[in-house]
Design goal:
Blueprint lengths: L3 H7 L4 H11 L7 E3 L7 E2 L6 E10 L11 H18 L3 E12 L4 H15 L5 E10 L4 E10 L15 E5 L4 H12 L13 H12 L5 H9 L3 E6 L4 H12 L1 E6 L7 H9 L4 H7 L6 E5 L4 H10 L4 E9 L4 E4 L5 E3 L10
Parallel strand pairs: 4-5, 9-12
Antiparallel strand pairs: 1-2, 3-6, 4-6, 7-10, 7-11, 8-10, 9-11, 12-13
This protein binds adenosine-5'-diphosphate and magnesium ion.
């Protein structure tokens, strides 16, 4: 889209050179891509008797990332994982990626190439092909929009809307790590100040920062849950468990009991919380961007699913039960007391 002259005159980036470089670096190998970067639209063959999944995410400098605490490669990697994770939460297979970029005056060609490098590093294990995008100048920081196209078997997509009262609530992996990692980076770069006594081993620190900068999308887990029709509903934890559980409950018209004592927390996350005198559970409930999957299943599949997960070395933990809508969403404390679960997730415009 014009005006392209603007990008040329205001920054050292030449739009068409940049696109040509991207085209050469990210050549398509997927035979289903008839035409990738370089035409007015990408052309792909559609597979008969498959459903398409389409997801998009917008990242804004200062809201979603800060160039003081992350490199462009880290930002690219995380942007890709955010989209891959949406496909994982549907139980699908990712295929094609489109990227829209608005580049500020301070942005360089190297910034852009590093961003693509990080992004494609996250995509490579899943053979995702970059098939197009758009490029513009920005008067106010970076704007990065990713659109990911995937596929799934008809009627097997994992929706948010299938949970029923009596189903068990499960989570993959551990939560709270990415939030702890982000807080550590903010401390390191002087955006916040840690308490005087705050100590944490280098190993834990490294683990938590990596969980923030280089998270994993749970694609294998999502595809497994979908293929065997184990899950009745699923969502990825991108805003924070307390909010993402609410989305399942709203879409499924159910309530839930969340067993707070059984939340899967890593040793590193617990150590971080202890060193900062924070409640690790509150951190885990509010912290987003762990990109774990929250899903529900019928109790009659419980032992089969747990056995199969162990065999595949998938880490899953039962963290509660789905209840009728009228009881709302309750947190069950370690002492058995019930109280409404506060929504502490990240929300824009709050
Ligand atoms: P148009 O003027 O039709 O929008 P462009 O010159 O913007 O065409 O784009 C030319 C080709 O380069 C298209 O195939 C488009 O998808 C691709 N492209 C443009 N910007 C990007 C980008 N940032 N990342 C990947 N592909 C891009
Ligand atoms: Mg364009």
């Amino acid at each position: 889209m014009t005006p392209t002259a603007r990008l040329k005159s205001r920054s050292p980036i030449h739009e068409f050179d940049l696109i040509r470089t991207l085209q050469q670096r990210h050549r398509r190998t997927d035979p289903s891509v008839i035409r990738g970067i370089g035409d007015d639209a990408a052309v792909v063959t559609s597979q008969a008797r498959r459903w398409s999944l389409l997801t998009t995410d917008l990242l804004t400098e200062g809201i979603h990332f800060d160039l003081r605490t992350a490199t462009m490669a880290d930002i690219g990697f995380r942007a890709a994982v955010a989209n891959l994770s949406d496909i994982a939460a549907m139980g699908g297979t990712p295929q094609y990626l489109l990227v829209s970029l608005a580049i500020p005056r301070t942005g360089t060609r190297q910034h852009v190439l590093q961003f693509y490098k990080g992004m494609m590093t996250a995509c490579r294990p899943y053979h995702v092909t970059l098939i197009g995008g758009d490029t513009s100048a920005s008067a106010n920081g970076w704007f990065i929009g990713l659109t990911l196209v995937g596929t799934t078997t008809p009627h097997k997509a994992l929706l948010r809307s299938g949970a029923r009262a009596g189903d068990l609530l499960y989570l993959t992996g551990t939560i709270g790590d990415a939030e702890a990692g982000l807080r550590l980076l903010n401390e390191q770069f002087g955006k916040t100040r840690p308490p005087h006594t705050a100590k944490l081993s280098a190993r834990y620190r490294q683990f938590l920062v990596k969980r923030h900068l280089r998270p994993t999308a749970r694609l294998a887990e999502g595809q497994w849950l979908s293929a065997h029709r184990f899950a009745t509903s699923a969502i990825d934890v991108s805003d924070g468990l307390s909010g993402d559980l609410r989305h399942i409950c709203q879409e499924s018209h159910v309530g839930a009991d969340l067993d707070v004592g059984s939340l899967p927390l890593s040793l590193a996350c617990r150590a971080y919380a202890a060193s900062r005198r924070l409640d690790p559970v509150a951190l885990a409930l509010a912290g987003g961007e762990d990109y774990e999957l929250l899903f529900t299943l019928s109790p009659r599949h419980r032992s089969e699913v747990e056995r199969a997960a162990k065999l595949r070395q998938f880490c899953i933990t039962c963290i509660g039960t789905i209840r009728p809508a009228q009881q709302g969403i309750q947190a069950i404390g370690q002492d058995g007391t019930k109280r409404p679960l506060p929504n502490s997730s990240y929300q824009h415009f709050r």
